[in-house]
Write a structure and sequence with these properties.
The chain is of the alpha/beta class. It contains 13 helices and eleven strands. The structure holds nicotinamide-adenine-dinucleotide.
Length: about 375
Protein backbone atom coordinates (compact mmCIF):
# COMPACT_ATOMS: atom_id res chain seq x y z
CA UNK A 1 0.00 0.00 0.00
CA UNK A 2 1.45 3.35 -1.02
CA UNK A 3 1.74 5.61 1.99
CA UNK A 4 1.45 9.39 2.07
CA UNK A 5 4.53 10.81 3.79
CA UNK A 6 4.39 13.81 6.07
CA UNK A 7 8.00 14.96 5.80
CA UNK A 8 9.20 16.61 8.99
CA UNK A 9 12.83 15.47 9.28
CA UNK A 10 13.20 13.14 12.26
CA UNK A 11 9.49 13.49 12.99
CA UNK A 12 8.40 12.28 9.51
CA UNK A 13 5.65 9.70 9.36
CA UNK A 14 3.43 7.70 7.03
CA UNK A 15 -0.32 8.08 6.56
CA UNK A 16 -1.95 4.89 5.27
CA UNK A 17 -5.32 5.47 3.61
CA UNK A 18 -7.26 2.45 2.36
CA UNK A 19 -10.37 0.33 2.70
CA UNK A 20 -9.53 -2.42 5.21
CA UNK A 21 -6.19 -0.81 6.06
CA UNK A 22 -6.38 -2.35 9.54
CA UNK A 23 -5.74 -5.78 8.02
CA UNK A 24 -2.16 -4.58 7.36
CA UNK A 25 -1.51 -3.17 10.82
CA UNK A 26 1.24 -5.73 11.61
CA UNK A 27 3.30 -4.39 8.70
CA UNK A 28 2.65 -0.76 9.70
CA UNK A 29 3.67 -1.41 13.32
CA UNK A 30 6.84 -3.16 12.14
CA UNK A 31 7.72 -0.23 9.86
CA UNK A 32 7.46 2.13 12.85
CA UNK A 33 9.42 -0.21 15.12
CA UNK A 34 6.50 -0.65 17.53
CA UNK A 35 6.60 -3.65 19.88
CA UNK A 36 5.79 -4.47 23.49
CA UNK A 37 3.09 -2.77 25.52
CA UNK A 38 0.37 -0.90 23.65
CA UNK A 39 -2.62 0.88 25.20
CA UNK A 40 -5.57 1.37 22.85
CA UNK A 41 -7.52 4.45 23.97
CA UNK A 42 -11.10 4.45 22.73
CA UNK A 43 -14.73 4.94 23.76
CA UNK A 44 -17.51 2.41 24.37
CA UNK A 45 -19.07 2.85 20.94
CA UNK A 46 -15.86 2.21 18.98
CA UNK A 47 -14.89 -0.56 21.38
CA UNK A 48 -18.18 -2.37 20.75
CA UNK A 49 -17.98 -1.86 17.00
CA UNK A 50 -14.35 -2.56 16.23
CA UNK A 51 -12.11 -3.65 19.12
CA UNK A 52 -12.40 -7.41 18.45
CA UNK A 53 -11.54 -6.74 14.80
CA UNK A 54 -8.51 -4.63 15.79
CA UNK A 55 -7.30 -7.33 18.16
CA UNK A 56 -7.64 -9.96 15.45
CA UNK A 57 -5.68 -7.79 13.00
CA UNK A 58 -2.88 -7.42 15.58
CA UNK A 59 -2.59 -11.10 16.41
CA UNK A 60 0.69 -11.57 14.50
CA UNK A 61 2.25 -8.30 15.73
CA UNK A 62 4.82 -8.45 18.55
CA UNK A 63 2.63 -6.36 20.86
CA UNK A 64 0.64 -6.81 24.08
CA UNK A 65 -2.65 -4.94 23.67
CA UNK A 66 -4.48 -3.29 26.57
CA UNK A 67 -7.39 -0.89 26.28
CA UNK A 68 -8.82 2.12 28.08
CA UNK A 69 -12.37 3.44 27.65
CA UNK A 70 -13.03 7.18 27.75
CA UNK A 71 -16.51 8.72 27.82
CA UNK A 72 -18.04 9.82 24.54
CA UNK A 73 -17.85 13.51 23.59
CA UNK A 74 -15.82 16.58 24.65
CA UNK A 75 -16.03 15.52 28.31
CA UNK A 76 -13.16 13.10 27.59
CA UNK A 77 -10.79 16.03 26.86
CA UNK A 78 -10.57 16.94 30.54
CA UNK A 79 -8.00 16.98 33.32
CA UNK A 80 -9.97 14.27 35.14
CA UNK A 81 -9.89 11.79 32.26
CA UNK A 82 -6.32 12.68 31.27
CA UNK A 83 -5.07 11.90 34.78
CA UNK A 84 -7.09 8.66 34.85
CA UNK A 85 -5.23 7.74 31.65
CA UNK A 86 -1.79 8.52 33.18
CA UNK A 87 -2.73 6.35 36.17
CA UNK A 88 -3.79 3.50 33.92
CA UNK A 89 -0.40 3.62 32.15
CA UNK A 90 1.41 3.59 35.51
CA UNK A 91 -0.70 0.74 36.86
CA UNK A 92 0.06 -1.30 33.74
CA UNK A 93 3.78 -0.61 34.23
CA UNK A 94 4.18 1.22 30.91
CA UNK A 95 7.68 2.67 30.46
CA UNK A 96 9.20 5.13 27.94
CA UNK A 97 9.18 2.48 25.18
CA UNK A 98 5.44 1.85 25.37
CA UNK A 99 2.86 2.99 22.81
CA UNK A 100 -0.56 4.62 22.83
CA UNK A 101 -2.96 4.01 19.96
CA UNK A 102 -5.80 6.54 19.64
CA UNK A 103 -8.76 4.59 18.26
CA UNK A 104 -11.66 6.98 17.68
CA UNK A 105 -12.63 10.43 16.45
CA UNK A 106 -10.95 13.78 17.02
CA UNK A 107 -11.75 13.80 20.73
CA UNK A 108 -9.94 10.52 21.40
CA UNK A 109 -7.05 11.64 19.17
CA UNK A 110 -6.59 14.96 20.96
CA UNK A 111 -6.55 13.63 24.54
CA UNK A 112 -4.53 10.47 23.71
CA UNK A 113 -1.98 12.54 21.80
CA UNK A 114 -1.61 14.95 24.71
CA UNK A 115 -1.15 12.02 27.08
CA UNK A 116 1.43 10.35 24.79
CA UNK A 117 3.36 13.61 24.44
CA UNK A 118 3.65 14.14 28.20
CA UNK A 119 3.73 10.70 29.84
CA UNK A 120 7.39 10.08 30.79
CA UNK A 121 8.25 13.08 28.54
CA UNK A 122 6.81 11.38 25.47
CA UNK A 123 6.04 7.84 24.34
CA UNK A 124 5.17 6.32 20.95
CA UNK A 125 1.88 7.47 19.48
CA UNK A 126 -0.21 6.02 16.64
CA UNK A 127 -3.65 7.09 15.52
CA UNK A 128 -6.40 5.05 13.92
CA UNK A 129 -8.99 7.79 13.22
CA UNK A 130 -12.58 6.60 12.89
CA UNK A 131 -14.52 9.73 11.80
CA UNK A 132 -14.28 11.60 8.50
CA UNK A 133 -13.13 14.70 10.39
CA UNK A 134 -10.39 12.80 12.20
CA UNK A 135 -9.17 11.10 9.01
CA UNK A 136 -9.07 14.26 6.89
CA UNK A 137 -7.95 16.67 9.57
CA UNK A 138 -7.30 16.10 13.27
CA UNK A 139 -5.18 12.93 13.04
CA UNK A 140 -2.61 14.72 10.85
CA UNK A 141 -0.41 17.59 11.95
CA UNK A 142 0.42 16.79 15.55
CA UNK A 143 -1.89 19.15 17.44
CA UNK A 144 -3.02 17.64 20.73
CA UNK A 145 -5.27 19.23 23.35
CA UNK A 146 -7.46 19.06 26.39
CA UNK A 147 -10.13 21.57 27.43
CA UNK A 148 -10.37 23.71 30.55
CA UNK A 149 -13.69 24.77 32.06
CA UNK A 150 -12.96 28.24 30.61
CA UNK A 151 -12.46 27.16 27.04
CA UNK A 152 -11.75 24.51 24.42
CA UNK A 153 -8.23 23.31 23.51
CA UNK A 154 -6.55 25.70 25.95
CA UNK A 155 -3.83 23.21 26.91
CA UNK A 156 -1.98 21.33 24.23
CA UNK A 157 1.23 20.28 22.54
CA UNK A 158 2.59 19.70 19.07
CA UNK A 159 3.42 16.00 18.94
CA UNK A 160 3.58 14.15 15.64
CA UNK A 161 2.33 10.56 15.55
CA UNK A 162 4.54 7.63 14.47
CA UNK A 163 1.95 6.79 11.83
CA UNK A 164 -1.69 7.35 10.93
CA UNK A 165 -3.84 4.43 9.80
CA UNK A 166 -6.99 5.70 8.05
CA UNK A 167 -9.16 2.68 7.34
CA UNK A 168 -12.10 4.11 5.40
CA UNK A 169 -14.14 0.94 6.04
CA UNK A 170 -14.51 2.17 9.63
CA UNK A 171 -16.53 5.14 8.34
CA UNK A 172 -19.45 2.90 7.31
CA UNK A 173 -20.95 2.97 10.84
CA UNK A 174 -21.22 6.78 10.83
CA UNK A 175 -24.62 8.31 10.10
CA UNK A 176 -25.24 10.47 7.03
CA UNK A 177 -25.52 13.51 9.33
CA UNK A 178 -22.08 12.76 10.85
CA UNK A 179 -20.54 12.49 7.38
CA UNK A 180 -22.26 15.73 6.27
CA UNK A 181 -20.86 17.53 9.29
CA UNK A 182 -17.27 16.66 8.32
CA UNK A 183 -17.68 17.43 4.63
CA UNK A 184 -17.43 21.18 5.22
CA UNK A 185 -13.78 20.61 6.21
CA UNK A 186 -13.27 18.61 3.03
CA UNK A 187 -14.77 21.36 0.85
CA UNK A 188 -12.38 23.73 2.62
CA UNK A 189 -9.38 21.81 1.22
CA UNK A 190 -10.69 22.21 -2.33
CA UNK A 191 -11.09 25.96 -1.88
CA UNK A 192 -7.77 26.64 -0.18
CA UNK A 193 -5.54 24.36 -2.27
CA UNK A 194 -6.93 22.26 -5.08
CA UNK A 195 -9.44 23.33 -7.71
CA UNK A 196 -9.56 19.87 -9.31
CA UNK A 197 -10.48 18.38 -5.94
CA UNK A 198 -13.30 20.93 -5.58
CA UNK A 199 -14.62 19.88 -9.02
CA UNK A 200 -14.39 16.22 -7.95
CA UNK A 201 -16.53 17.07 -4.91
CA UNK A 202 -19.05 18.79 -7.16
CA UNK A 203 -19.39 15.51 -9.07
CA UNK A 204 -19.32 13.11 -6.13
CA UNK A 205 -20.73 14.83 -3.05
CA UNK A 206 -23.94 12.73 -2.90
CA UNK A 207 -21.90 9.52 -3.08
CA UNK A 208 -19.66 10.75 -0.28
CA UNK A 209 -22.71 11.55 1.84
CA UNK A 210 -24.12 8.10 1.19
CA UNK A 211 -20.85 6.57 2.44
CA UNK A 212 -19.49 5.21 -0.87
CA UNK A 213 -16.14 3.75 0.24
CA UNK A 214 -14.29 4.36 -3.04
CA UNK A 215 -15.28 8.04 -3.04
CA UNK A 216 -14.46 8.42 0.64
CA UNK A 217 -11.06 6.81 0.07
CA UNK A 218 -10.27 9.39 -2.62
CA UNK A 219 -11.53 12.20 -0.38
CA UNK A 220 -9.53 11.08 2.67
CA UNK A 221 -6.40 10.49 0.56
CA UNK A 222 -6.53 13.90 -1.18
CA UNK A 223 -7.36 15.77 2.02
CA UNK A 224 -4.54 13.99 3.87
CA UNK A 225 -2.06 14.95 1.16
CA UNK A 226 -3.11 18.62 1.34
CA UNK A 227 -2.99 18.71 5.14
CA UNK A 228 0.44 17.00 5.15
CA UNK A 229 1.83 19.46 2.55
CA UNK A 230 0.66 22.45 4.63
CA UNK A 231 1.98 20.99 7.91
CA UNK A 232 5.36 20.18 6.32
CA UNK A 233 5.83 23.85 5.46
CA UNK A 234 4.57 25.25 8.76
CA UNK A 235 4.65 22.58 11.44
CA UNK A 236 4.18 24.97 14.38
CA UNK A 237 2.27 27.84 12.82
CA UNK A 238 5.30 30.08 12.52
CA UNK A 239 5.48 30.87 8.79
CA UNK A 240 1.80 31.72 8.55
CA UNK A 241 0.95 29.07 5.91
CA UNK A 242 -0.87 26.83 8.40
CA UNK A 243 -3.25 29.72 8.99
CA UNK A 244 -4.94 28.93 5.66
CA UNK A 245 -6.38 25.82 7.33
CA UNK A 246 -8.48 28.27 9.35
CA UNK A 247 -10.47 29.20 6.26
CA UNK A 248 -14.11 29.52 7.41
CA UNK A 249 -13.05 28.95 11.04
CA UNK A 250 -12.75 32.52 12.31
CA UNK A 251 -16.40 33.05 11.44
CA UNK A 252 -17.21 29.47 12.43
CA UNK A 253 -15.71 29.75 15.94
CA UNK A 254 -17.77 32.89 16.50
CA UNK A 255 -20.94 31.03 15.46
CA UNK A 256 -20.11 28.06 17.71
CA UNK A 257 -19.49 30.31 20.71
CA UNK A 258 -22.62 32.33 19.98
CA UNK A 259 -24.58 29.08 20.10
CA UNK A 260 -22.96 28.11 23.43
CA UNK A 261 -21.33 25.13 21.67
CA UNK A 262 -24.67 23.33 21.64
CA UNK A 263 -26.92 25.07 19.09
CA UNK A 264 -24.63 24.43 16.12
CA UNK A 265 -22.04 21.71 15.45
CA UNK A 266 -18.45 22.48 14.42
CA UNK A 267 -19.09 21.31 10.84
CA UNK A 268 -22.27 23.36 10.48
CA UNK A 269 -20.45 26.42 11.84
CA UNK A 270 -17.53 25.95 9.45
CA UNK A 271 -19.94 25.55 6.51
CA UNK A 272 -21.60 28.88 7.39
CA UNK A 273 -18.15 30.39 7.99
CA UNK A 274 -17.03 29.34 4.51
CA UNK A 275 -20.09 31.00 2.99
CA UNK A 276 -19.46 34.19 5.01
CA UNK A 277 -15.80 34.28 3.91
CA UNK A 278 -16.73 33.74 0.26
CA UNK A 279 -19.39 36.50 0.37
CA UNK A 280 -16.95 38.84 2.09
CA UNK A 281 -14.26 38.19 -0.53
CA UNK A 282 -16.86 38.85 -3.22
CA UNK A 283 -17.83 42.18 -1.60
CA UNK A 284 -14.15 43.14 -1.46
CA UNK A 285 -13.90 42.38 -5.22
CA UNK A 286 -11.30 39.69 -4.53
CA UNK A 287 -13.44 36.77 -5.64
CA UNK A 288 -15.89 36.08 -8.48
CA UNK A 289 -19.67 35.85 -8.15
CA UNK A 290 -19.47 32.47 -9.93
CA UNK A 291 -16.95 31.14 -7.38
CA UNK A 292 -19.21 32.26 -4.57
CA UNK A 293 -22.19 30.56 -6.17
CA UNK A 294 -20.32 27.26 -6.68
CA UNK A 295 -19.31 27.19 -3.01
CA UNK A 296 -22.82 27.92 -1.78
CA UNK A 297 -24.35 25.34 -4.11
CA UNK A 298 -21.95 22.64 -2.94
CA UNK A 299 -22.61 23.39 0.73
CA UNK A 300 -26.33 23.39 0.00
CA UNK A 301 -26.05 19.88 -1.40
CA UNK A 302 -24.56 18.55 1.85
CA UNK A 303 -27.89 19.47 3.40
CA UNK A 304 -26.54 21.84 6.06
CA UNK A 305 -28.72 24.83 6.93
CA UNK A 306 -27.56 28.15 5.55
CA UNK A 307 -28.80 30.73 8.03
CA UNK A 308 -27.86 31.58 11.60
CA UNK A 309 -31.49 31.95 12.55
CA UNK A 310 -32.21 28.29 11.75
CA UNK A 311 -29.79 27.48 14.59
CA UNK A 312 -31.36 30.07 16.91
CA UNK A 313 -28.32 32.38 16.70
CA UNK A 314 -28.59 36.12 16.14
CA UNK A 315 -26.11 37.86 13.85
CA UNK A 316 -25.38 40.43 16.57
CA UNK A 317 -24.34 37.72 19.03
CA UNK A 318 -22.19 35.99 16.39
CA UNK A 319 -20.40 39.26 15.67
CA UNK A 320 -19.76 39.83 19.37
CA UNK A 321 -18.15 36.40 19.79
CA UNK A 322 -16.10 36.68 16.63
CA UNK A 323 -14.27 39.61 18.15
CA UNK A 324 -12.81 37.22 20.73
CA UNK A 325 -11.30 34.88 18.19
CA UNK A 326 -7.79 33.85 19.18
CA UNK A 327 -6.45 34.60 15.71
CA UNK A 328 -6.83 38.35 16.31
CA UNK A 329 -3.53 40.10 15.72
CA UNK A 330 -2.91 43.58 17.17
CA UNK A 331 -6.64 44.09 17.57
CA UNK A 332 -7.19 43.30 13.87
CA UNK A 333 -9.17 40.28 12.85
CA UNK A 334 -7.14 38.03 10.59
CA UNK A 335 -9.32 36.39 7.94
CA UNK A 336 -8.57 33.82 5.27
CA UNK A 337 -10.39 34.77 2.08
CA UNK A 338 -10.59 33.08 -1.35
CA UNK A 339 -9.19 34.71 -4.46
CA UNK A 340 -10.10 31.81 -6.78
CA UNK A 341 -11.27 28.29 -6.05
CA UNK A 342 -7.97 26.62 -5.12
CA UNK A 343 -6.31 29.69 -3.62
CA UNK A 344 -6.77 31.85 -0.53
CA UNK A 345 -5.08 34.85 1.05
CA UNK A 346 -4.70 35.85 4.70
CA UNK A 347 -6.10 39.39 5.16
CA UNK A 348 -5.95 41.55 8.27
CA UNK A 349 -7.09 44.85 6.83
CA UNK A 350 -10.70 44.10 5.96
CA UNK A 351 -13.19 46.85 6.65
CA UNK A 352 -15.26 46.06 9.78
CA UNK A 353 -18.48 47.16 8.07
CA UNK A 354 -17.97 44.60 5.32
CA UNK A 355 -17.30 41.84 7.87
CA UNK A 356 -20.48 42.83 9.64
CA UNK A 357 -22.44 42.77 6.37
CA UNK A 358 -21.16 39.26 5.57
CA UNK A 359 -22.46 38.01 8.93
CA UNK A 360 -25.74 39.92 8.55
CA UNK A 361 -26.22 38.23 5.16
CA UNK A 362 -26.45 34.91 7.03
CA UNK A 363 -29.02 36.18 9.54
CA UNK A 364 -32.12 34.77 7.80
N1 LIG B 1 -5.96 18.17 16.66
C1 LIG B 1 -6.46 18.79 15.62
O1 LIG B 1 -5.75 19.24 14.71
C2 LIG B 1 -7.95 18.94 15.52
C3 LIG B 1 -8.52 19.44 14.33
C4 LIG B 1 -9.91 19.51 14.25
C5 LIG B 1 -10.69 19.11 15.33
N2 LIG B 1 -10.10 18.64 16.46
C6 LIG B 1 -10.91 18.19 17.60
O2 LIG B 1 -11.64 17.03 17.19
C7 LIG B 1 -12.81 16.91 17.96
C8 LIG B 1 -13.98 16.58 17.06
O3 LIG B 1 -13.70 15.36 16.41
P1 LIG B 1 -14.87 14.46 15.76
O4 LIG B 1 -15.72 15.30 14.92
O5 LIG B 1 -14.22 13.25 15.19
O6 LIG B 1 -15.79 14.13 17.02
P2 LIG B 1 -15.79 12.94 18.09
O7 LIG B 1 -14.46 12.40 18.33
O8 LIG B 1 -16.57 13.42 19.26
O9 LIG B 1 -16.66 11.83 17.33
C9 LIG B 1 -18.00 12.14 16.95
C10 LIG B 1 -18.95 11.01 17.34
O10 LIG B 1 -18.79 9.92 16.46
C11 LIG B 1 -18.66 8.72 17.17
N3 LIG B 1 -17.85 7.84 16.32
C12 LIG B 1 -16.53 7.94 16.09
N4 LIG B 1 -16.17 7.05 15.15
C13 LIG B 1 -17.28 6.38 14.80
C14 LIG B 1 -17.56 5.33 13.88
N5 LIG B 1 -16.61 4.83 13.07
N6 LIG B 1 -18.82 4.86 13.79
C15 LIG B 1 -19.81 5.38 14.57
N7 LIG B 1 -19.62 6.38 15.45
C16 LIG B 1 -18.37 6.87 15.56
C17 LIG B 1 -18.03 9.12 18.47
O11 LIG B 1 -18.26 8.15 19.47
C18 LIG B 1 -18.72 10.46 18.74
O12 LIG B 1 -19.96 10.24 19.36
C19 LIG B 1 -12.97 18.24 18.72
O13 LIG B 1 -12.62 18.04 20.07
C20 LIG B 1 -11.96 19.16 18.05
O14 LIG B 1 -11.44 20.13 18.95
C21 LIG B 1 -8.76 18.55 16.57
Amino acid sequence: MKAIRCRLGKRSYSIYVKKNALAHITTFLKQCGIRGNVLVVTNRRIYNLYFVHLKKCCRKAPVRLFYHILPDGEEAKSEKHLFALYNKLLTLGFDRHATIIAFGGGVIGDVSGFCASTYMRGINFITIPTTVLAQVDSAIGGKTAINLPRGKNLIGTFYQPHCVISDVSLLSSLTKAQRADSLAEVIKYGIIWDQAFFSYLERMIEKALAGNATVLEHIVRTSSIIKARVVERDERETTGLRAILNFGHTFGHGFEAAGNYTAITHGEAVALGIIAAARLARTCSMFSARGCERIEQLINRIGLKRSLRSYGITARRALYFMQFDKKRKNQKLSLVLPTTIGHVKVCSDINARKIRAAIMSLAK
